[in-house]
Please model this.
Amino acid sequence: MAVLVTGGTGYIGSHTVVDLLNNGYDVVIVDNYVNSKPEVLNRIFKITDKKPRFYEISVQDEEKMSEVFEKENITDVIHFAGLKSVAESVAKPQLYFDNNVGSSKVLLKLMNKYGVKNLVFSSSATVYGVPDHVPLKETDKVGGCTNPYGQTKLDIEYLLKDYAKEHKDANIAILRYFNPIGAHSSGLIGEDPQGIPNNLMPYITQVAVGKRDHLNVYGNDYKTVDGTGVRDYIHVVDLARGHLCALKKLEQKPGLVIYNLGTGKGTSVLELVHAFEKANNIKINYVICERRPGDVDENYADCHKAYEEMGFKTKLDIVDACRDSWHWQKNNPNGYGD
Ligand code: NAD
Ligand code: UD1
Model:
């Protein structure tokens, strides 16, 4: 009885693997290191004193994936593997489609072949496109994605819905993450973006550690509390726990279910900057600049469904996340290194 974690050496995957191992799950990881490093496995061992079995392969590789399903007694799959850079997806839409949608197809084919019923999938709030209201509920309209990356998430959601219609005994939890930030409290694992970070928190921590001169704040004329964009920042350790809640939920054989994973609270760019400054006693230099194309004013979750149906509620807040992100960055100025 093992949980297959695709993309298990990535940012969210590694935190989830730690939580799974600490809760007695037998874990098998598949990752091709396209956006992660082998060092993550050493760090997971340092935290948990356990070694998950690991296969360096692409989920797109049906033959090699088939060998994993043959060898391991997989009962559940958590599917994190995917490319996630919005900018890269605009430049290389086909690569994103092939990798993200293609790997999901392979996985479903093999789950069907080997009788694996339970799947947790990493979706994103990006499937809501440009929201006409907040907070966002799971029943709100999806579509109108502003980039190919977001479109792959929506395409996979449809693929999973079709699969569930055809396979009545399949249990699938689609988790729509809002904005994951923070790191494990040990400072041993965290977010390790390659090159210039696209997302806000890693940019802030790189300014704090002296790798970047200042933060560019993308616009202060949004219809928000202080004019800067508002998002729902969820601590990655809470988010990881959400996957264990989802696995428990799937034991009840619910068919296909969809949950937002967020905090239900919006935070502006400047509020996050000031929270970081206060939590860590570090000044973050910033410059207000042009809006970033594709950005929306506000985006935060209605989280009632995840609480009511699987008992998931966040325990950590943005202050914890600011402290933990900084702890990780300070101890690992170059991430996991080369
Ligand atoms: P990440 O890039 O850190 O982790 C993804 C992992 O998948 C990496 O280790 C990468 O090497 C691996 N991978 C990619 N393609 C693969 C393939 N074909 N075969 C095997 N391994 C492959 O990203 P993350 O932040 O941990 O995100 C995990 C998942 O959650 C992704 O699917 C992402 O789209 C989704 N998500 C992330 C966010 C976010 O802000 N981080 C928000 C919403 C949804
Ligand atoms: C972005 C992606 C989204 C993806 C998510 C998680 C876009 C348009 N959206 O969401 O598809 O699912 O990341 O990977 O890229 N900001 C700054 N300066 C920075 C970085 C960000 O001011 O250097 C602001 C943004 O304008 C936004 C907020 O910070 O208001 C959060 O940005 P980010 O962390 O990139 O997340 P999202 O825009 O929500």
